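Subject: two folds for Thursday's group meeting

Dear M.,

Sorry for the delay on this. The cluster queue was jammed most of the week, so I only got both jobs back this morning. I'm pasting them in the order they finished. Each block is the input sequence followed by the predicted structure tokens. Could you check whether the formatting survives your parser before we put anything on slides? The first protein is the one we discussed after the seminar.
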Amino acid sequence: MMAYSNDDTFPCIVGEVGSHSTKLGFAGEDYPRSYFRSTTAIHRDAKHKSDPRKVKRSYDFFSRPLDHTGDDDGNWEVSNPVDATTGLIFQGMNNNVHYSSSLSNGHDGVGSGTDTETEKPSSSMNANEEIDDAEVKDASSPNESSSGSQSSDNGIIPGECFTHFSSHLAHGYESALCTDAASTPLMLVEKSYNPPPIRQKMMEIVFEEHNVPATFFARDAVCACYAVGRTTGTVADVGHAGTVVTPVYDGFVETKGILRSPVGGAMMGEMTLQHLDGLYKTKKSRMKLKSPVDYIMPLYQVNAEGMMARREPFHSLARLDLARLCKEDGTGAGVAGYGYAALSDLEGDAAQKEPSDMYHQYANAPKATYKLPDGTTIDISQTKRFDVGELMFGKGGKSAQTREEATRRAKKRLDAITASGRDPADNEDVESNAIAHMEEIARRKRNARGLGENDKKKLSFQASHEKLVNACIPYLSTTIGEFTASSLPSMICESAFKCDRDQQSQLLGNTVLCGGGACLATSVMSTSTGVNDGNAMPERLRRECEAIIHAHTPGWRVKVSSPGISERAICSWLGASILGSLGTFHEMWITKAEYEEQGASIINRKCP
């Protein structure tokens, strides 16, 4: 077995491309040096619209228009390499299938709190329009042309998500790391359910485009366990696009227990934005504020001449970012103590009862004040803050209904993605032959001596994206986790119970909470219980899980481990940083010589 060694001159690079942010840094450090949004603005070359490599990119587009000549956004678009439905660096054959979570039932995305005559900004997190049920049905039929060299009607090119992924890595190297990719090994943090075809494609990009000397792919749930000093546990990752609960036993992912939910940081940000819009509209009417709109304006709009809004999706993204700041500040969202139930979640017999004393205590608590970019201050009640957190904890009523609607839409979108590939009757041949076909194409590219450098890159991009999609379909249908509308505590218990009986007590006794969506604070009213601000959500999660488990297994205990609230969003990256800094890890690297000798399929043997 080959072992990579670089004389310990530099530590390896640890990278993670998530749905919200991309993180790159050196192993052994406590924080990534390069930390930027995964959603970027792109401008396609007018003469080479079908070539995804010939695009301009901007990583700073929230605070100012991108086209300086016309003081607008011109022909710029927004793109994200991570598909919001699957959570993977993936793109189906139908290029219109890009999504974001939404609390509304129509195209408007987030309700802006405006009148019906006022335009409501969309909440799409990608460059493409959101789709409703009718559009999902239409999306099940593939495009007439599946070639990567032809763009679709909306300008999206099949397989360009991998080009964006490569560009994010290059931007991280150039912007903050200031090191040559060819001189430093790279460890990539990937989703625990990432299918083998996508892993192989990512490895091709790492070796062929970035020319790294060695690489290793680490599962995010396993890395999250390492970050808190565990090798076994149930990892609840509350990300931007959704929540994934993954059981890990002795450093290996138990794929049969993976559960997913579309509720994540994006949906909580949208709900926060609804609350802010409603409060702003009420104050505008009461105080007779002179504002041209009935919704909160982002900073760029406040500074713009005539307070003109940018076109979509830039305007909605700027508003959602303002809501995110309010949520992460602790003013716009929070987690109540155990036993709390929102009024909107009371149903049936409970709806006829008086709200609990805890609810009245919070309802009468001092309100939190937040200052908007235009200088207006709004007061947010404690119960409004907790309504956001109850999206993950609420057992019934509006919270459960919101989760169910979001899950139904996510399942339909996933069905549309799987239907855009090969006919299901042919899937038997797909799983066995498509990966081998990709391997053969990769081998031909490496041996294409007569082609120029540009032709090689173009051929690399266009290398059978259809085959890759068809190879992924069986995995997307079965092994990437089951969508569920359950609350977060129920997801954790269900995930552990899907594993073997002798594993369940250890999995529940070592629950790990991580992800940017889990960075919710508590209120000032909970300080009397001795719960620290950053520990509000882990403590609520522990008590909820124990209440479920003790109904049939009284002796089991639940322990929730979680980094501090400032490190919770980078928990998986921290675990990979620890792993990459180990002195014995050099035996785990996949070297470029091994890749050239055995092909990309080696990743399935050396990176389980």
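Second protein, same layout:
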Amino acid sequence: RRHAEHLYRKGDFTAAMDQYVYTIGSLEPSHVIFRFLDAPKIPLLTKYLEELRSRGIATSVHTELLKTCYMKLNDVSMADKVSASLSKSMTPNTCNSIVSNLLHQPVEALATICSFDAPNAVEALKSHGPILAKAMPKETAGLVISLCDGVYSSSIGKMSRTERHRSGEDALSESLESNKKRPQTCEMYPVHLFSSAFLEHPKLLRVILSHCQKNKRVIIPSLKRMLLELTLEEWNNAKRLKDIETESNMRNEAMAMLSDPNTANELGNYEALVIVQQQDFTEGMVMLYEKLQMVSSSIEAYAEDGSYKARRQMLAMCKSDPELLADVLGYFVKMAAGKIALDDDESSINSDSEIGELLDDIREALSMAKSQDMLPPVRVARILAGDGVGQFSEERSRRVKNDEYSVPLSVALDYIGTVMDESSKEVDRLKDNVEEYNRMCNSMEDEISELLSFQTSEKSQDVNGINIDEMYSKLLESPPDSSSERKSETVSESFWREMAHSPDRFETIARFYAKDVLD
């Protein structure tokens, strides 16, 4: 030690370091390290730290310092080797402590996390993710995605000095693309471990969650609902800014989530319905209304959309459920009346215009009403006149004025003409039926009168032809019937014979008495 210090004072630092190496084990390493911390002496400090490491007495602080020395010397390969050994030997608490000391330099802190093995990197991100995401959001997101995909490794995760100066957008896009080609090197960590770090960066959080959703990674239901909400928010923003490409992409992502059976079950239909209603996502609302069999709400959503495709769907629903026709016809009338009120040029109303298409849809609905015969013509007329669905109401103050929501009479001429023709035919048919019934009644009345008169005359003739005295004299003159006497004798013999042999004489007497053969 004295020799080393003598050489150090003379300025022979190389020889002094050679002597300090011999003091390992007897001299505190910090005494030597503090003497060689300036830049020209970094190679000598590296030699001393390597010696400590080779003898197995280097602490994690010494190893981290050795890695920093190699980075200062631009020896990346040796720094990687030291980092690998350092990460394996360190506990999560040690890793967190190291990163905490580097948080004032986010780039260095993230590079240090990238040098850890996967479990320590996860623990460090869970503890310090919000701070790192605030300073370097896209780089942190790339690291999180590699952990979720299971392709993270300390050699892949490490950032060189050149990489640290790239834009975060490039780093994130390269991470998403390169992850597809990498083999799995670690456990796939669930994204909810890191989601809280990106609460101040909703777009990045949506990118991470969307990547995990597309690649079938583990996502808890609450994060799936958050993904749907963030996707629809971005869709709404793109729609407002008229960014057609982003609007289409977000719409497709949202519809894919809602139509996927597994995702839909985890989202919950009612919870998803609340989200799409908040963002006014009509297509999603209609899908969920159909799943939940909320037919009236589906019709209302299609009516709010008002597009040609939506109107065709409304008519298709009427074919399967005729009871919906009144509502659909009412919505068509309201849509057509609203557009006609805004269009002052009547000559623009033709089959090729939007108003003309609406009027054609009304004609088709009227034709359907005629063929289905579910709606009374009076109710159809009231709907066409602007009375909503044509239901009678006592609250006249709430009714819409006919002038506001009505359509031209020409739209209903075919329907009204057909109904009137059929009504006229029906009236004629009923008249003929009434006349025929009247003739039948008159004929039956005549027949009944004839029968009554004939019966009366025949009865009087029968009464006049009966001679009672003559019939009585014949009865007196007729000889007595000997057969009845013989029959009476036979019955008497049978009675006494049965009385002689019957165990219950009372029953025998009652039976013969019932036959009315006993006097």
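Two things I noticed about the second structure. The CA atoms of residues 48 and 110 lie 27 Å apart. Confidence is low (pLDDT under 50) at residues 159-169, 390-403.

Cheers,
T.
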